[in-house]
Structure formats: C-alpha cells, structure tokens
C-alpha cells in the first residue's frame, strides 16, 4: 500500500477495466492501495480518487467499501504474519496470517509510521493525523505479542502465531519493548558496551555483496555501490555503505581499522569513513577523511576521534604521496593512544586521560557526506575494509 493516491497514469489505465455501478456510474479499486478507489466518469471529465471510510477496504466485486474480511483486495498479499502495512502516517495494518485476521493499529503518541521501519519517533511533529485504532501506549505494550530475542537488540520474538518465530528488525533499527516496535537505534537509550574480548564487526573484501554481508555481523545498508570485477567496490558522491550496528553504541576500549582505497579526490575534502551521517544530523566521533596537500603530488589523510569525556574532535594528519595503486590506511586506538598509518608512514597522538570513543547517533559509514563538518562523500575504489573492536578485559 503506497502513501500516495493513485497517480493519473495508473488511474487512466485502470478506468479501462471499470465495472458499471449504480445509475451507470463506474468505479475501480486503486491497484496499490486497497482503501482507495477511483470514480471513472464519462468521456471528457477528469477521474476522481476517493478513500473508503476509516477501517474499510474497497471491493470491486461489490462496488462499495466493505469490512476487510469482505473485500477481495488483500492488504497483506505475499507478506509474512506480523508484517505492518502503511495506512496513514499514524496508523498501519497488522497482518495476522490470513485475510480474516487483519487489524488496523496505531502508533503511540509522539510516533509516526514509516513503511518498512514501523513506528518511529516524530521528531518534528510532522504527522497531523488522528489515531482511531488504538488509543494508548499502555494498551499497545500490554497486548504486545513481541518479546526481546536472546540474539540481541536487532532481533525480536514474534508470538503472534502458535509457533514462536525469531524475526530481524529493519536495517538501522533495534527492538524496543517499551513501544513494542523496532525503532531507529538513536531513539533508544544508549546501547550496552561490547562484550568482553575482540569482535570483527566489519569484514569486506568486495568479491561479492552476499559474501560481504555474510562476513559482516553488523547490519549493512548499501546505497548506489557497484562491485567491479569481483575485486573492489566503486563509490561515488551519492554512494555509501552503512553499518548500523555502531549507531548509539559504545565502541569498546580498543578499535582497529584497516582499509585499502584508491581515491579520485574529485571534490575535496572527502569523508572516507565516519559515523556522522546526514540522515541523523549528528556530529561524527570517528572519522577518516582526505584533502588536497600543498603540492599536487601529495594528499593529506585526516584522522579524527572524540573521546566520551570531551566534545571536541582530536585530529591527526598524515601527508602521503599520490599513487595510482591502492593505499593502505590503518587506525589503532587503545583508549589513550591514537596510532595512524598510510602506506607505512605513521603518526601518533597520546591523550592525557584514558577513555573510549564517544557514542554517535549515526551508523559507521563508508562513503557518504559528513554534513555537520562540511566534508563531501568519498569517491573512488575500495579493495577491503576491516573494523575490529575490543571490550573490557
């Protein structure tokens, strides 16, 4: 079900299939929205799009709005039990496994519904729709058929049917039992620190997208990324790879980063890797970027981190020769020392007090603009990336 009315092109096509209604009038259901229908007029007149009364669906066979169980239009067609389908910015259909178990439900106060993500915090109060289906947050949490999963914050147990099922939250969200929904990670209280020991959370060799996704425990979202000859990834100004596991989470006491890149540096300065995406309007607390140097034969690599006890990012630069070959870029942070390296050229910065990298609402992101600090997106080839974090001993 789309958030928009049937567009004119679809309307004109569908009117060719119109069924005569009372007094010779003709109506047909919107092909992408069971709650909407089109009045097909006489030749020379514009079509008129209409919406069924609240909670009803259109029936082509009966030529009227009816109860969901009486409509041949199936809102949940080809969707799993427990799926949520858009009805308005405030309400959604809850699929119950068969056509007869369809329910219209409402997001809690202060939340709006986004297709594919569920109920999200309405930060700018943009949804003005009223809620008729489910009046209170207390009722929603009291009757919640979802439970947290032992697999972690990105999963939940679905108790809707007789058989308990484990489901994954959409990319970039975590399950919140407080609102019985998967919500954006930065809408939740800060997540717990990593478990004891070291974990490689990003491991990509760019041989195939399926293999990279399987080798990376963090949830991955790709945007306009092209895999080249099964050996590298091409990123442009509109490309990015987001690792949402790192949103609003303690990165641990130690962090190790290794990338092999071949930059174009078409629009400097560029953010290669950072956790301050434009989507969350957050400042990065970890960044690897690059800029032009004083001479055309060199390039400046810029490394920055913000500790959890401060609000200012500490920068460390390395000037390296431009190269037509891939460059190895490394970062090591152990809580008190930041070591960086580009093609064997190293730099180091020590901190007076030991700490960890501050949390950020944004995901860790390869490519993409860092809007809050004015860096453009990285453009070029990436041969590999590996990110390992270590918790408390």
UniProtKB/TrEMBL annotation:
<dbReference type="InterPro" id="IPR002557">
    <property type="entry name" value="Chitin-bd_dom"/>
</dbReference>
<dbReference type="InterPro" id="IPR036508">
    <property type="entry name" value="Chitin-bd_dom_sf"/>
</dbReference>
<feature type="domain" description="Chitin-binding type-2">
    <location>
        <begin position="31"/>
        <end position="75"/>
    </location>
</feature>
<dbReference type="Pfam" id="PF01607">
    <property type="entry name" value="CBM_14"/>
</dbReference>
<protein>
    <submittedName>
        <fullName>Protein PIF</fullName>
    </submittedName>
</protein>
<dbReference type="GO" id="GO:0005576">
    <property type="term" value="C:extracellular region"/>
</dbReference>
<dbReference type="GO" id="GO:0008061">
    <property type="term" value="F:chitin binding"/>
</dbReference>
């Amino acid at each position: 079900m789309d958030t928009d009315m049937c567009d004119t092109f679809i309307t004109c096509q569908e009117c060719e299939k119109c069924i005569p209604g009372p007094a010779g009038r003709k109506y047909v259901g919107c092909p992408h929205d069971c709650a909407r229908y089109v009045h097909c007029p006489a030749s020379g007149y514009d079509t008129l799009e209409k919406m069924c009364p609240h909670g009803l669906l259109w029936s082509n066979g009966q030529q009227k709005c009816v109860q969901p169980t009486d409509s041949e239009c199936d809102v949940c067609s080809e969707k799993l039990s427990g799926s949520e389908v858009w009805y308005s910015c405030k309400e959604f259909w809850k699929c119950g496994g068969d056509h007869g178990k369809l329910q219209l439900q409402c997001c809690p106060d202060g939340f709006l519904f986004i297709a594919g993500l569920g109920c999200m915090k309405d930060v700018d109060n943009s949804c003005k729709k009223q809620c008729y289906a489910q009046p209170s947050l207390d009722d929603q949490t009291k009757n919640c058929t979802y439970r947290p999963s032992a697999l972690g914050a990105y999963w939940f147990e679905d108790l809707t049917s007789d058989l308990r099922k484990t489901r994954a939250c959409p990319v970039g969200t975590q399950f919140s039992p407080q609102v019985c929904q998967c919500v954006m990670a930065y809408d939740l209280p800060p997540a717990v620190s990593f478990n004891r020991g070291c974990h490689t959370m990003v491991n990509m060799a760019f041989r195939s997208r399926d293999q990279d996704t399987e080798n990376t425990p963090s949830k991955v979202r790709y945007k306009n990324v092209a895999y080249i000859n099964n050996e590298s990834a091409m990123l442009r100004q509109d490309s990015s790879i987001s690792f949402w596991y790192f949103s609003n989470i303690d990165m641990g006491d130690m962090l190790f980063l290794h990338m092999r890149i071949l930059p174009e540096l078409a629009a400097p300065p560029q953010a290669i890797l950072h956790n301050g995406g434009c989507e969350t309007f957050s400042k990065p607390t970890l960044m690897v970027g690059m800029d032009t140097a004083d001479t055309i034969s060199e390039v400046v690599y810029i490394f920055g981190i913000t500790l959890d006890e401060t609000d200012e990012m500490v920068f460390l630069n390395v000037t390296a020769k431009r190269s037509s070959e891939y460059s190895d870029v490394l970062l090591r942070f152990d809580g008190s020392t930041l070591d960086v390296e580009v093609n064997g050229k190293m730099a180091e910065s020590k901190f007076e007090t030991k700490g960890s990298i501050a949390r950020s609402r944004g995901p860790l992101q390869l490519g993409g603009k860092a809007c809050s600090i004015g860096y453009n997106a990285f453009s070029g080839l990436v041969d590999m990336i590996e990110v390992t974090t270590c918790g408390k001993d």
